[in-house]
Amino acid sequence: MKTLTTLLAAAWMALPLGAGAQSAGSSSDLVVVELFTSQGCSSCPPADALLHQLTARDDVLPLALHVDYWDYIGWKDQFASPAHTLRQKGYAQIGGRQMVYTPQMIINGQDDVVGANAMKLGEVIAEHKMRPNPVAITVDGTPSGAGDISVQLRRADTGPVLNGPISVQLVRYTPERTVDITRGELAGRSLSYANVVETLEPVAQWDGSAELTVSVNLPDALPAAILVQRAPFGEILGAARLN
């Protein structure tokens, strides 16, 4: 049986040369990987570990969105939010899927991968890296701590014509959180979770035509990123880290 390390190495080998590097000003080249997971799901720890591995990559924005539909079996996920469950169900509806499950990864709002399938995940990330980026994002005045920053969005010079509505969203996340689980399917385990989403909320709507400038306030040093997505749960057209 292949170990997670073996699968992860194979998945990384599937990437084109240079895919792990990110030059200055190319932040909108990020591939967004959303993991829908739960502390009450016995199948989730390998996927949670895989998300940890993804945080080492500059060209990927991995995000853990904990859902609440496992809470009934005896352990309430401390990071779960009904909004995360709603987002996962929205992806399922748009993608024509009949059900939601954990662990599930959604790549750039489009492709569905079983969360612990490192090989398939690597292939899908590589495919998205090969696609042209529809939106160019410029971040000005990135602060070291609290403050306002300006984000400019425009259609990429070589990108397709964009049609709205497009949602500009601010996501804030904690790089790592550890939990001692005392009940449920994972009782007795201490597990670490990477890039736990704390908030994900719209900050602007855009029609994709003229350039748009958005001012974003970051009240503290919690990591943040901008997601530009076809509303409400469509393709992610661009993403940029803000700090």
Task: Give structural notes.
This protein has a single domain, classed as Glutaredoxin, CATH 3.40.30. It is built from four helices and eleven strands. The protein is α+β, with helices and mostly antiparallel strands. Mean pLDDT is 88; it is low at 4-9 and 11-26. It is globular and about 55 Å long. A four-stranded mixed beta sheet has the order 2-1-3-4, sandwiched between helices. A four-stranded antiparallel beta sheet has the order 8-7-10-11, with helices on one face. A three-stranded antiparallel beta sheet has the order 5-6-9, with no helix packed on it. It has helices at 4-13, 45-54, 82-95, 118-130, and strands spanning 31-37, 60-66, 104-107, 111-114, 135-140, 147-155, 166-180, 190-206, 212-218, 224-230, 236-241.
- Widest sheet: strand order? 2-1-3-4
The major pleated sheet works out as:
4 strands, mixed
| Terminal Cα span | 40 Å
According to CATH, the fold-level topology is Glutaredoxin
What value does the average pLDDT take? 88
In what range is the share of β-strand residues?
35-45%
Please summarize what this structure is.
It comes from Phaeobacter italicus. The chain is α+β, with helices and mostly antiparallel strands and 243 residues long.
